[in-house]
Amino acid sequence: MDSQANKNRSNEAEKEYLEHTLSFAGKELSRAKTSGDDIKSAIISAKKEMRESTTHTIGSLWGSEAFEALAALNQYANPINDQVIELEENENKILRLENILKSPYFARIDFLYADEPKDTLPQPMYIGRTSLKDNKSHHMYIYDWRSPIASVFYRFVTGEAYYDAPGGRTCGTLVFKRQFEIKNGVMEYYFDADVQIVDEFLRKLLAKNTSSHMKAIVETIQKEQDIVIRDMENDLMMVQGVAGSGKTSIALHRAAYLLYQGLSSHLLANNILIISPNTFFEQYISRVLPDLGEDNVASAVFEEIAGKVIGAKKIELRDEYLEKMLTAKTVPAACFLKERLELKTSLFFADIIDRFVAEIPNWFIEIPDIDYAGQSIISAKQIRRKLNSSALAHPLGVILKQIEEHIMETVYDVHRVHRNHAELKRIKNKLKGFSSLNAKKLYRFLFTDGYCLKNLLNQIPEEVIKITAANLNSKTIAYDDVAALLYLKLKLYGTEEYKAIRHALIDEAQDYYPLHYLIFGLLLKKAKYTILGDYNQTLLKEEDISLYERIAGILDKPKSVLVTMDKSFRSTNEILSFCAKFLAKETLIKSFNRQGEEPQVHIAPSKADLGKMLIIEAKRLSAAGYQSVALIVKTALNAKNLYQEMMKMGEEITINLIGYEIDKGISIDKKISIDKEISMDKEPSTDKELSGIFIIPVYLAKGLEFDAVLICDTDDEDYHGMDKKLSEEDKKFFYIAGTRALHHLGVFSLKPFL
């Protein structure tokens, strides 16, 4: 009876606290809306006053009273700008309060500080996605999940605990820990948390269907993940995480945490950059930070960065190059593409470019004598002396520009006397001829000039030189030249494009090469890094744990750390055990221990039968309630062929095709019935592209997760030696494809598998 009475009192107390919290949040929301209306009215009024009061000054902007006229305009414009900023902040506050009214908090901890008397009652603290405070009474209704005290919830069970804050470490006792499920302002349930119950809660969450976008996971962050999220000590945080360990999600939560800490360190959203593997993945993760109440930070793929810095209009995407490797007609052709890329993204090739840049003043710049109407201004010998004396101070292109400006100062002094405009124009053109460096033109010289071929490229295979020289005649920059050309441009001119970036998050780290990391170091000189990868998911090159040692060596940051996440939270035990067969024996991968059905292997007698079996299985899974059913194939070409094969069958089924049209970039067919004509959209849909049934190549599926996965093309045409033994490369494709599945995995083949 006493136990039930205590439970009832606890229920009433929690309901009462929720009501008080929602009531206060509701009042704050009303005040914020009223304030917003007042600010809007003030802006309208100020604009009207500005129009009426400054009309007479507009005509004088170009007259003698221009300064006074502009000052009068600024007198009105500055307050309006301030009010617009205030309105934006108020709109954000309204959105935050509306979200609080839906789900104010998800946890409670009762913490007793070590320096308090023993008979002191512990302080209850409620934790949510954002804070809520009564500024009059100073009562904290809700603590932000990123606050120092909230780390106690993530890192400790009841007993001795501590948290680190800017003022130092605070010790005490975690007396009580509780989790809540509150939806639309209604408390659905809560439970007092210990390890067993928390694991069961997480298991139930993982058993649900996935969504079309990555979700925030603040309610279920694990201790090891929280340590990564809150790390402020290291300049380079590297995470090696197995498939499903949550590394990408943790990186995004880390970005949110850094922005929270930015209140004191002045870190803003425009100081963070996410480098994603492709635009499709960018879209998939785009809602996490807004869900956490933060502005979306800038994100880019490497090719986009390269195009911007180089000034190129067309650049081949990495996945397009990968598609060419995978669909090459012969093994030697595929190997040549692979070796070409590895060579031109190596530190060895970076050294060749460095030596080339050092030789440019001697061999590839024609330095002239400069004279004005026969009067010597500066000799070629003097220019070269200036060039050599400042060679180490700045990039070559910058030094040449400085020399040009210095010469022009002298030229203008002479010009003021002689006023010979034709001579002035001639000198400007002459100077521009040697002071403006064209990176692509110089890169072509590297592969065509006799001196370079003999002295710099003498260890490069002749076939690589020929193919590269031919490719450089195209308007599209081949992917295997992108990094090298970008590195050359940075060595010639540097860049200020990313000088505001103070923290970079780089995902799928294992798919970048050494030259890429040299480039990141040049682009993001002031940045700290969070780098995430899984060497088991490397495509078309071999990697191991030493990858991170090489990255640390190249980026050369004062403090770096490698964190290993070996527990997968995505797939069931059965799926994970099946996929582990494709990993090297020494690879350790732990399961969160969620039970499910065994993966099924289906053998079809013909390709037509295979298509029918896939349709039947996809429809069955969809009818069973799976919201996303992915038919994963090895290449975009296979995806297109399978799609067309299934179209011919006339079944009533809606299938989405996600893939690349070669030389066209990403194309998304959203909600296309197989009895309808394919129409390609240039940009991915931002809404339901990961809902329903769809076909996707394995390299675009990396980083994503689906309720059910059907691996479709497991025959010896696509997986070399399938009837005997999978290659190490093919094993990685199977591991990547299989670990996309949350609940169901099926393998479809034309002959016995494994």
Report on the architecture of this protein.
About 4% of the residues have low confidence. The protein is α/β, with parallel strands linked by helices. The strands form six sheets. Strands 1, 2, 3, 4, 5, 6 and 7 form a seven-stranded mixed β-sheet that branches. Strands 20-26-25-21-24-22-23 form a seven-stranded mixed β-sheet, with helices on both faces. A six-stranded parallel β-sheet has the order 10-9-15-16-8-17, with helices on both faces. It starts with a helix and ends in a 5-residue tail after the last strand.
Low-confidence stretches: 662-688
Q: CA-to-CA gap between the ends?
A: 61 Å
Rounded average pLDDT: 86
Classify the beta-strand content into a percent band.
15-25%
Structural class: alpha/beta
Instruction: Please summarize the sheet with the most strands.
Output: 7 strands, mixed
- Anisotropy-based shape: globular
Question: How many β strands by DSSP?
Answer: 26
As a whole number of angstroms, the C-alpha radius of gyration is: 31 Å
Report the helical percentage. 40-55%
- Total helices: the number is 26
Task: List key phrases describing it.
26 helices, 47% helix, alpha/beta, seven-stranded mixed β-sheet, 754 residues, globular
Would you summarize the structure shown here?
The chain is an alpha/beta fold and 754 residues long. Helices cover 47% and strands 19% of the residues.
Topology:
Layout: H1 2-58, H2 66-102, E1 107-113, E2 123-128, E3 132-134, E4 139-144, H3 151-155, E5 159-165, E6 168-183, E7 186-192, H4 195-206, H5 223-230, E8 236-241, H6 247-265, E9 272-276, H7 279-284, H8 288-291, E10 298-301, H9 302-310, E11 314-315, H10 318-326, H11 331-344, H12 347-363, E12 370-372, E13 375-378, H13 380-389, H14 396-418, H15 421-435, H16 439-448, H17 450-455, H18 462-471, E14 476-477, H19 479-493, E15 503-506, H20 514-523, E16 528-533, H21 546-555, E17 560-565, E18 567-568, H22 573-580, E19 590-591, E20 600-603, H23 607-623, E21 628-633, H24 636-647, E22 654-661, E23 665-673, E24 692-697, H25 698-701, E25 706-711, H26 728-738, E26 741-749
Parallel strand pairs: 2-4, 8-16, 8-17, 9-10, 9-15, 11-14, 15-16, 18-19, 20-26, 21-24, 21-25, 22-24, 25-26
Antiparallel strand pairs: 1-2, 1-6, 3-4, 5-6, 6-7, 12-13, 22-23
Helix pairs in contact: 1-2, 5-6, 9-19, 10-11, 11-19, 12-19, 14-15, 19-20, 20-21, 22-26
